[in-house]
Protein 1
Amino acid sequence: MSKKLSLLSLITFGLVLSTSSVRADSTLVAVASNFTKPMTEIAESFEKATGHSAKLSFGSTGKFVSQIQNGGPFEVLLAADETGPALLEKEGLAVSGTRSVYAIGKLVLWSATAGYVDAEGTVLKTGHFKHLAIADPKLAPYGAAAVDYLKKQGLLDKIQPLMVFGENISQTQQFISTGNAELGFVALAQVIENGKIGSGSGYIIPASEYATIRQGVALLKNGSDNPAAIALLAYLKSAPALAIIQKYGYDLPK
Amino acid sequence: MLTTADLDALWLTFKVASLATFLLLLIGTPLAWWLARTPSPAKGFINALVSLPLVLPPTVLGFYLLILMGPSGAIGQLTHFLNLGTLSFTFAGLVIASVLYSLPFVVQPLQTAFNSIAEQTLEAAATLRASPISTFFNVVLPISRPGFLTASILGFTHTVGEFGVVLMIGGNIPDKTRVVSVQIYNHVEALEYPQAHWLAGCLLAFSFTVLFILYSVLKTPPQVQQLK
C-alpha cells in the first residue's frame, strides 16, 4: 500500500517536474497600434530566446484600458502613453512597481505619394489637399502630438476643417495609404524601412515641436503569476529588444 | 447629460438614416417588385447580391468602399470625373454606404409583401382597364402597406445602428460623419462612461420603442384578398 502510494507520488512528482521544466508559458499582450511592427519582431525573438510565447492584440490604448477595466484577459499592456498604465496601477489592475517607459515615439507627416511631403513639411502651408488624417487626439497620443505641432506652427485653424480622424494610428495610416487622405500624421515606426521612410514621402517632425510621446508598459494583475508575462517584461529591456525598438525609429528612455 | 457634441451626433444620425431610408424606398420598391415578379434566371443572382450585406461583416463592405471611393478606385475616379471630389469622409459617402448596407432590410420585406399579392388581383385590375402604373398605386401599394412600414422601419433603424462601415469610411468628422454609434465608441475609448451610458441608453430606448410599435401595429401579416 505504502509502496504503491510512494510510487504514485513519485510518478506524480515526476510529471509535475517534467511539465514545469519543459512547458513553455504563453502570455496575452495588449499592444498599442503604433508598436505593431516592432512588437511582432520582439515577440519572435522572445520566443526563440526564452521558449515562452507571446500572443499579441493590437489596438488603441484607450480601448485596451477600458477592456482591462472590464475584465479583459490581457497580462501585459504596451501603451502609447504613460497615462493608461498609470491609471490601471492606481485602480489596482496593474502590478505596482512594474511600470516603465519602453520607447519614445516619433511623429511623422506622411503621404503615400512620392514627393508630396517635402523635407521641411511646407506642404502643410502651401499644399492644396482636401483631407489630412490624424489619430483622434482624444484617444491617441500621436494624434495629440500632431495637434500640438500644428498649434505651434500656427496652422491648426487652417487645417482643422480638413482633418479626418482615425480611431487609432493604424487606421490613420490606412486612410493615407489608400489615398483617401492626401497626407497625415502617423508614427515613424509605421513607415520606416531600413532607417528611412520606406514608401511615399514624409517629414519627421523635430522632437522639440511636440510634447514627448513616452510609451509606457506595465504588468497587469492577470499576468502577475505568469512566468511568460514576467519574462516578457524583462525581455523588453534586453539588448536584442532595444535594438529592434531603435530600428523602428523610436528613442530609448534615458 | 448629453453634450452638444452628442446632440450633433444624434441629429446627424437622424439625417443620414432618413435620407438613406428615402433613397432605399425609391430604389428598393422597383427592385423588390422586379424580384417578386420576374421569371428571369438572373433573379437568383440579384437576390444573392442584394442579400450580401446581411451576411458580410461590415468591415468587408467598409474596406471595399474605402478602396473604391479612394482616388484610384472606380467610384473615386467616376466622382473625380464628375468634379465631385472623393466620397470618403463626406456626408454623401456615408448615405451611399448606408443605402448599400441596409438594402436587404428594405428589399426583403417589400419582396415578401409583393410576393403575396396574387396574380388574379393584378389581372382583375387589368380587366378593369387599370394601367400597370395605376394598378401599382391603387392596388399594390395599399395592399403592401404593412410591408412598406416594416421596410422603412428596418431600413431606418438598421442605418441608425450602423457602425463598422462608418468607422472605416467616415473619418469621424464632427457634424459630417460622426454618427451616434461612433460617438458612443469614442466615449468608451476615452473612458467617458457616463457619456457613453447616456447615448447608449437613448439608442436602446429608441430601438426598443420603434420595434415595439412595429410589432404591436403589425399584429397580422400583410393581408391578401383572393378574388374569384
Protein 2
Amino acid sequence: MGKTLYERIWDDHAVHQAEGQATLLYVDRQLVHEVTSPQAFEGLRLKKRKVRHPERTFATMDHNVPTHAKDLSFADSISRLQMETLEKNCKEFGVSCLHFTHPDQGVVHIIGPELGITQPGMIIVCGDSHTATHGAFGALAFGIGTSEVEHVMATQTLQQNKSKTMLINIDGPLGKGVTPKDIILYIIGKIGTDGATGFVIEYAGETIRALSMEARMTICNMSIEAGGRAGMIACDEKTFEYVKGRDHAPKGEDWEKALSYWKTLKSDSDAKFNKVINLKAEDIKPQITWGTSPEQVVAVDEAVPNLDDFSDPIKKEAAKKALDYVGLKSDTPMAEILIDTVFIGSCTNGRIEDLRAAAKIAEGKKVSNKVQAIVVPGSGRVKRQAEKEGLDKIFKAAGFEWREPGCSMCLAMNEDKLNPGQRCVSTTNRNFEGRQGKGSRTHLASPEMAVVAAVEGRIADIREYI
Amino acid sequence: MEPLVKHTGLVASIDRANIDTDAIIPKQFLKKVDRVGFGKHLFHDWRYLDDEETQINPDFILNKKEYDDASVLLARDNFGCGSSREHAPWALEDFGFKVIIAPSFADIFYNNCIRNGILLVRLKDSEVDELFHFASKTNDAKITADLPNQSIATSDGKAYQFEINDFAKECLIKGLDSIGWTEQFIGKIETFEKTLAQEKPWI
C-alpha cells in the first residue's frame, strides 16, 4: 500500500521508533518568537544545556511589537522586557534573531517562507499554533508548547505520536469574490472546529493546485482552527519557483539535489487516508463568521442562524452564549450588521497578494467616517514591496492607517486592541471571546470583504463591488 | 514534574464546548518570562469583572468558596483549542487542577498537559453527561482517577474506563523528564545527523 505525504515525511524523519513509546522525529527547522520561548531558554540554562543546532533555529519578534512606529516607547514595559529577553537569549545561545528594528522582521509565519527558511519535505516547528502555514510547501509543520520548544532546542528532535490522515479534495473553479480565506472558513464551517482533531490534513484537488503559494499558505494556516495537527499541500512547480533564489534556499549543486528529492514528495495514488472529504469549489460563497468560534460561519448573503436550527444541544448552547457575547440576534441578515473597526493583516492574510487584493478594492473608495481601519503588513519585506507598488498610497488615500509589521490586532498583545463592545471585521484567524481585546467582537473574513466593510461601515458582500 | 498515579479531588464543572486557551489564560498574561504564578489569572475574563482582578464574578464556579479546593475539571468537547500557549496548562496546574475530563481535547493542549503532569481523560459524550449530572447534584462531588487502571470513579459509586496511550501514561506515572528520556537516544540522533549531512546537505 502506498504512503501519504505525511507518512512519507514522518518516515524520513524517524530517529527512534519502538512499540509503546513516542517516536522521536528529527526537526529540520525551529522558528522562535518572544512569547513562547523565554521559559524554554531558561530551562536550558538551568540544566546547563545548549541549543543543539543554533543554525537550524531562527528567532524573530512579532507578537508584542508596536505597529505605530519602530519605536519601543510605544510598547509597555513588560512587552519590552520580553523582547529584550529574546535578544539576550539568542545572543547567549548563538541563535540568529531578527530584532523588531531589523528591516526583514515580521510575523514568524510570513518571514519563514519569505526568507526561504521554509522548504519542502522539512519538519518545521514553532511555539505557535499557526505553524501549519508552512505545510503549504509540502512540509510537515505544526505548533508546539514551550516544553517542546525546549526539547527541540536541546535535542533537535520531538517526541510525537502519529496522527490520523485526512484528505480534503476540492475541485472546480472558484466563484466571483471567493478567496482562499473563504475556502478554509467554509471547510471549518463544514467539519467543525474539532473536525480534524487527531488528524493531519492534506488539501488536494484542482482548485488547490490552481492556487498560488500565498493562497495555499492562507489555507494551511487555519488548519488548526479545524483542530488539525497540521495542514499540508503537496509541492509542485509553483512551490519550487517560490523557494528558488530566496536567502536560505539551497544553491548550486544542493539545489539540484534538493529538487530531485522534493519531486518525490507526494501522496501515492494508492495511499489510504483515514478520512476523505470531497468538496466542490462552486458551493463556496464569500464567508463571514457570526459567533465566537471559527466554525460559527455563514455565507455573507445569509443571516445569523436561528437557535432553533441547531439539533445538537451543545452546539445550540454554544450558539446562544456566542450571540449573547457578540450582541447579535438570530435571523439578522449579516449584511445589516454595523461595524466600527477593520483589521487587515496577520499570518493568515498579511502577505503581499492579500494587500494587493485589498488595495484593488480600496482604490478610489473612502473608509466610512464611523470606522477605524488599519493595515498591518506581515513583514518588512511585504511592507517595502507594497510601498514600491504604491499600495500604501491607495490605502492611505482611502482612509486606512498604514502600520509597521507585527501580529498586532490578531491577538491584541501590543497596543492595537478593541474596546469592549467594539465590532471588527478582521482578516485574522480567531474570533474567540476577548481575542482582540476584552469584550471585543470579531467577524473573520477575507481582505477584500474587510475593505468593503470598512467602506460601508457594515458587513457587505464583496460580489456587489466587483 | 510530579508523578501522577492516582488522584482524588473535588470536581468543578464548566458546561461549555470549545473552551479555548485564550479563555483559559488571556494574552495579557503571556508577557511574563517565567512559568510561575499563572493560576490567579486562570479564566480571567470569566472570573473577574475588571482588568485588575479586584472584583470577582460571584457567579463563576471557581469563585464559589466550596470550589476553592477543586482539582478535577469537567468540560465539554474540544477543550483547550486554539493557541499553543503552554501558559494554559501552567495556569490550570498552578490553580490546583490535576485531572481534566471532557469528550475531546485539542492536540497541542493535550501534549502540553502531559508535559506538566496533568491527566486528560477522554470519555464518551454520554458518560460526560452523567458526570455533569453527578457534579450538579452536590457541591461536594469527588472523583478518583486511577491511571494504572485507566479508570475514573465517582464518590457516588459509578466507574468509567478511559483510553490513554502507553507512553503518555508512563510519562505521567513516572513524572518523566522528557528531555532526559530523549537524551538516552543521543547516539541515534548523531547517526541520523551524519546520514542527513550526506543525503540532504542543504538541511
